[in-house]
Amino acid sequence: MSTPDDPIGFGESDLAHGETLLEVEELTKHFPADSGLLAGVNLEPGQFPPVSFGVDQVEAVDGVSLEIKKGETLGLVGESGCGKSTLGRTILRLLDPTDGTIRFKGEDLAELSGEELRRKRSEIQMIFQDPQSSLDPRMKVGQIIEEPMRAHDMFDDEGREARAKELLEKVGLDPRHYNRHPHAFSGGQRQRINLARALSVDPDFVVCDEPVSALDVSIQAQVMNTMEELQAEFGLTYLFIAHDLSVIRHISDRVAVMYLGHVVEVAEKEELFENPQHPYTKALLESIPVPDPRESGARGVLEGEVPSPQDPPSGCRFRTRCPRVIAPEEYELTDEEWGHTRAFMRAVKRRTFEPMTAADLRREFFDGDLPRGGAGEIVDEAIGYVATDRRTDDERGGDGDEDGVTDDDWERATELLLESFAERSICAREQPAYELEAQHGSDPHFAACHLHR
Ligand SMILES: Nc1ncnc2c1ncn2[C@@H]1O[C@H](COP(=O)(O)OP(=O)(O)OP(=O)(O)O)[C@@H](O)[C@H]1O
């Protein structure tokens, strides 16, 4: 730890660059789905008593394993709500993990509490997205930066002031602004104050949660450049959370991609951007807006809604939106047959077509030929539900609209197809985890996708 005579300290750390600083294994954080008065009470009218107790869980982070090396920046990317912040906060023990280990310099943070945990907190810091709300407007910049040092009993008043001023300079601000209030600064400058504050206790590891997302693009690059300079100077390690791939590309050494509480791909940056191996990562990369708006069509490859983290899909969580779901083996479908069946299943599930005759459906979705064998029989049965000419109104229960196809019919067809095909795919039955050889760089490439089985 640094002394007042050496106010900044050059992070004389016990670990060499590139050694494992943090290792997270099977880390899980579930939240109770509802914290209201009746949380956990389920109404079950068919039973006596008609209530049961049991709390639905939001599986925000589920079985995540990651390694972060001393001196590197691991970028963590994924759509909003996929669990990035929850993972960052659980690693810092701002949230208690539901399960798993968080090994920091060999010590399991998940096991620490009280004073031991408080002391560790000086080694791990966090900066947040919104510099406006994370800086107390009543405090002066100097006090803001000194607060963590005071909390950890570091230095005397003079030492803290000297260190705060030096840090102001290090983050690209004028030390003479020590007595100003945060409102006098721009968004980018406020994020620099936050950085100085986080670095004041000489941490080894900083979790940066969307630190530049609220800033203009030109300011983003400047703040990231400063963060990189500070990283090199102090031997810092960053977990850098962002939803914006261009930010991730700027700052990361390695990248982890998250989807619905799972890490689905991890690779060195160049490998991830040039040789992505998970269909979700590919879809994310393809949906980066193209600079020329006339070149449309490069967007929007991710279809469907993200499922609820309260009831996530079995196996691969991305399978319900995945364009590459694997055919169930039992039917021995050709690629073409599976392609047709999947397209039909998806169209029925989303009700994207007007009901038509069975022959028209066969032509429209199967080029006239249903798959051979058992798969064909199932498809034919499903067609029976949504075709206009296969069942009488009485058979349907008589509440169909003009074309005779009822909501129940759509649901039966959907259920039959999903149960017979989607749920029998390896993608639904087993959680994928594969280590691949990388084409770029020397690190292994992790991809949670059964296409690599
Ligand atoms: N305290 C909480 N109680 C219940 N559910 C929560 C809580 N915090 C987060 N969640 C849920 O956990 C899931 C993951 O949220 P999280 O904020 O970690 O995602 P994120 O990827 O960081 O998204 P964003 O970028 O929008 O912040 C979401 O479904 C969210 O609604």
Please write out the topology.
Blueprint: E1 20-32, E2 41-43, E3 51-53, E4 57-69, E5 73-77, H1 84-91, E6 99-104, E7 107-108, H2 114-120, E8 124-127, H3 131-134, H4 141-151, H5 157-170, H6 187-199, E9 205-209, H7 217-234, E10 237-241, H8 245-251, E11 254-259, E12 262-268, H9 269-274, H10 279-286, H11 335-350, H12 358-366, H13 373-386, H14 407-420, H15 426-429, E13 434-436, E14 445-447
Parallel strand pairs: 5-10, 5-11, 8-9, 9-10
Antiparallel strand pairs: 1-4, 1-6, 2-3, 6-7, 11-12, 12-14, 13-14
Helix pairs in contact: 4-5, 4-6, 5-6, 6-7, 13-14
The structure holds adenosine-5'-triphosphate (ATP).
Structure description:
- The protein is of the alpha/beta class.
- The chain folds into two domains: about 20-35 and about 45-250, 3-Layer(aba) Sandwich (Rossmann fold), CATH 3.40.50.300; about 325-425, no CATH class.
- It is about 35% helix and about 15% strand.
- It contains 15 helices and 14 strands.
- The chain has an eight-stranded mixed sheet, with helices on both faces. It has a four-stranded antiparallel sheet with strand order 4-1-6-7.
- Strand 9 (about 205-210), helix 7 and strand 10 (about 235-240) form a beta-alpha-beta unit.
- Helix 4 (about 140-150) packs parallel to helix 6, helix 5 (about 155-170) packs across helix 6 and helix 6 packs parallel to helix 7 (about 215-235).
- It is elongated.
- The two termini are about 50 Å apart.
- The model is unreliable at about 1-5 and about 290-300 (pLDDT under 50).
- The structure holds adenosine-5'-triphosphate.
